[in-house]
Predict the structure.
Amino acid sequence: MPDYQEMYYIMARASEKAIRLLIEAQQRYEALVIEENEPMQVLTSGQLENLEEVSR
């Protein structure tokens, strides 16, 4: 019989690791943006649609 408790703990630990990795990546990105001291570009929905069409 499978050890469901152990399976749950494995999944919970992997999920926590993934969340921490995403948070770290976001923090590193934000630090780079702040260091460059340039305003961030904001795309309108129309510009985003154009990018999606070009990338197809």
About this structure: Residues 4-55 form one domain.
